[in-house]
Amino acid sequence: MNTRDLAYFSALVTQKNYTVVASQFKVSQPTITVAIQRLENEFGAPLVQRDRAHNKLVITRAGQLLYQRAQRILKDLDLAYLEVEQAEQSTIRFGMPPIIGTMWFPLIAGELFSKGLLHYLETLEVGSDQLLKELEAGKIDVALLGSVRPMHEANLGSTLLAAHPFRAVVSKQHPLADQSAIAFEQLANDNFVTMTGKFVHPQALKAYSDYAGFTPNVVYSTPVLSLIKGLVRANLGVSLLVDDAIQPSDDVVALPLTDPLPERFNMSLVIRKAFMPNPVQQEFINVLTGLKDAVGKK
């Protein structure tokens, strides 16, 4: 079977137009037609039919089943090309959210430097949701990810390194600042500043506000942690942040929450199960695994 035929067929299912697909792949329309015929002969079933009454293409049930499988085959093939291309390179394609880069990555940066591993790093710093997609697509090989629940992904191996609670963060002028702990519902009338939707914090905010029975009034979202703390310090809003994000020098108050929710900021080392690290990449992974002890001693 020609995998190119599967690519043509998948595009035809999406576009429903032979001419558009031919233009997309820069081939003639008969090339697409012949490719579909080869697939129909291969599988012994019609895949595409023309509804002449409505002048449109209809994908048969057999075609729909093949399309679902073809998507996985083409994705795995693209991933194989990427991995083979990277096989002889020592580059470490690594991803982490900025908040992990600020709070925890420095704990092992010295060891990475002493072993000469920082030289090999190509680091992508974006939110965990985006990093998960980049991992699955083969754009990066290793990541430190944040999640509100322990990760379980079919094609990824995950090692939990740390699990930290979230705190309500308020200014020192806030009426609740002198409390030892609060219920999240006590913030129902406050304005909120939070991380953008690409990070895990909005998921935690939704879980806590749903439990407390109110919709938070989010007045500002940003990927910049220091800006959030600055806005809270100025008493322009409150926030929900992982406990380690708050330092004495931030001049804000981090309040423990009494709500019995399982959400935590879970930091996990995540690697594609099919990834075969070379010695340099494996040494980097070994150092990252040591974050579990480093964070515990912090």
UniProtKB/TrEMBL annotation:
InterPro entries: HTH-type_LysR_regulators, LysR_HTH_N, LysR_subst-bd, WH-like_DNA-bd_sf, WH_DNA-bd_sf
Stored Gene3D superfamilies: 3.40.190.290, Winged helix-like DNA-binding domain superfamily/Winged helix DNA-binding domain
Domain named HTH lysR-type: residues: 1-58
Keywords, ordered alphabetically: DNA-binding, Transcription, Transcription regulation
Protein's recorded name: LysR family transcriptional regulator
Highest taxon above the source species: Bacteria
Family: Belongs to the LysR transcriptional regulatory family.
Coiled coil regions, renumbered to chain: none
